[in-house]
């Protein structure tokens, strides 16, 4: 019967252990950095989503005001109090407000997709009930 065992001489074992500890510390630092970056992206995307939702609310209110202004301008034109140009200006303002509303709604979809991408979710999970 024969038995073989490696005997490390000259501090090789201690050097090997130091290298292993160094590699372990490096791996832990990488994990910590990755987690920190993920948290940062999550908070950033969430804040972008909140901001996009606020933009939609403001755009909706602007559109409602522009609609009221258009109606008022049309009534004033019909009454002969202002020239038809006033109604046209109000309609342009309403169209611009509608465009802003549509763009802000689109930005919500983009920010939801960004947020969902962090955990490979689908948009259905992010929509409000």
UniProtKB/TrEMBL annotation:
Which molecular function terms from Gene Ontology are attached? efflux transmembrane transporter activity
For this protein, the record's Pfam families field holds: OEP
Task: Say which domain of life the source belongs to.
Answer: Bacteria
The record's similarity note reads:
Belongs to the outer membrane factor (OMF) (TC 1.B.17) family.
Q: What is this protein called?
A: TolC family protein
Protein species of origin: Diaphorobacter aerolatus
């Amino acid at each position: 019967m024969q038995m073989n065992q490696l005997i490390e001489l000259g501090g090789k074992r201690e050097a090997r252990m130091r290298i292993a500890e160094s590699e372990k510390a490096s791996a832990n630092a990488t994990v910590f950095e990755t987690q920190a970056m993920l948290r940062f992206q999550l908070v950033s995307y969430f804040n972008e989503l909140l901001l996009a939702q606020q933009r939609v609310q403001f755009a909706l209110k602007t559109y409602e005001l522009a609609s009221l202004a258009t109606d008022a301008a049309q009534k004033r034109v019909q009454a002969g109090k202002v020239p038809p140009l006033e109604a046209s200006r109000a309609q342009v303002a309403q169209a611009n407000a509608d465009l802003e509303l549509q763009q802000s709604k689109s930005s919500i979809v983009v920010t939801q997709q960004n947020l969902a991408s962090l955990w490979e979710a689908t948009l259905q999970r992010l929509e409000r009930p």
